[in-house]
Write a structure and sequence with these properties.
Layout: E1 7-9, E2 12-13, H1 16-22, E3 26-27, E4 30-31, H2 42-45, E5 49-53, E6 63-64, E7 69-70, E8 76-83, E9 86-88, E10 99-106, E11 115-116, E12 122-123, E13 135-141, E14 144-151
Parallel strand pairs: 5-8, 7-9, 8-10, 9-11, 12-14
Antiparallel strand pairs: 1-2, 3-4, 6-7, 10-13, 13-14
Length: 153
């Protein structure tokens, strides 16, 4: 390639122009033939990209603060902080190989009925019993979820 890529953070490359000019696009394992693309460093290093959000976050495309709906992008680790509500929606474009990861803290005093995880069609280890104030991490692949308690109050 002639230039070394330097990592600025876990989601960008300093040498994106070099990669865009020389690297074909691969979309879910199928070559698209498009030659101009930004390639996140996570594609090369296997590092997770993460995004934090709260009830009021309005600059994260996957989070709709008006409806409290999170529609995650595969491969991105979402961290919800002190949430009073969350509806988890899996994108209609998801394929079985897509993995979705979400860590969320339920605000103390939140109404648990406002946390809807019905996009997950079956659970490994059973459906969770959520508790206000606790932090959970969930991983979803092909509609199957596994959830763990990260921190209890």
């Amino acid at each position: 390639m002639g230039k070394k890529a330097s990592v600025l953070d876990t989601s960008t490359l300093a040498a994106e122009k070099v990669f865009a000019a020389t690297t074909p696009t691969y979309v879910r394992g199928h070559r698209s033939g498009v030659k101009s693309v930004k390639i996140p460093v996570t594609d090369f290093m296997g590092l997770p990209t993460s995004a934090e959000f709260t009830d009021n976050t309005d600059d994260l495309a996957a989070w709709d603060a008006t409806t409290a709906t999170l529609t995650p992008v595969a491969g991105v680790f979402y961290v919800g902080l002190a949430l009073t509500a969350m509806i988890l929606a899996i994108p209609s474009t998801a394929i079985p190989a897509d993995e979705f990861r979400v860590k969320f803290t339920i605000a103390t005093g939140a109404t648990l009925a406002n946390f809807v995880l019905s996009a997950i069609t079956s659970w490994i280890g059973g459906a969770p019993d959520l508790v206000a104030g606790n932090t959970y991490e969930v991983s979803i692949q092909d509609g199957v979820g596994v959830i763990g308690l990260v921190e209890a109050v």
